[in-house]
Design brief:
InterPro entries: RBP11, RBP11-like, RBP11-like_dimer, RNA_pol_Rpb11_13-16kDa_CS, Rpo11-like
Domain DNA-directed RNA polymerase RBP11-like dimerisation: 33-107
Strand order of the largest sheet: 1-2-4-3
Number of domains: 1
Number of strands: 4
Structural class: alpha+beta
Shape: flat
Order of helices and strands: EEHEEH
Oligomer: single chain
Distance between the termini: 64 Å
Helix content: 40-55%
Protein name: RNA polymerase II subunit
CATH topology: Gyrase A, domain 2
Coiled coil: 88-115
CATH superfamily: RNA polymerase, RBP11-like subunit
Mean pLDDT: 91
Strand content: 15-25%
Number of helices: 2
Family: Belongs to the archaeal Rpo11/eukaryotic RPB11/RPC19 RNA polymerase subunit family.
Low-confidence stretches: none
Length: 133
Amino acid sequence: MADDNLPDRFESIVLPEGVKKLRYVPDTRLPNCASFVIEREDHTLANALRAQLLRDRNVLFAAYRVPHPLEHHVILKVQTRRSEYTPLEALCAALVALKNEIHVLEDEFANELQNWAAVRKAGIDAGNAAWRT
């Protein structure tokens, strides 16, 4: 009975029909500034993007907010240092860099997993040999 008011869990991850994953909203008050509304995402992606954007020397400001826990989107605000490098270009560059970092992390994890399996197998084989003697 206490969970009657809870929204369905799928609502936080399934993109409704007709809703775009990403919306670009230019900021008219600040130069070279825009907000991006990213639907059905949370702190995980938003914080990684913010951190990646702040590594870019051409990005002056990058921050995000989650308007409300029951609203399933984040708002990422980006301001660049010069007009030749737009916030959209900065976001695209950050996405590519983040994707590359994830691929490196996947490769390193796979290698370490193989190393761990080999060491474990060698340890088990050595243990079995000790029992036989």
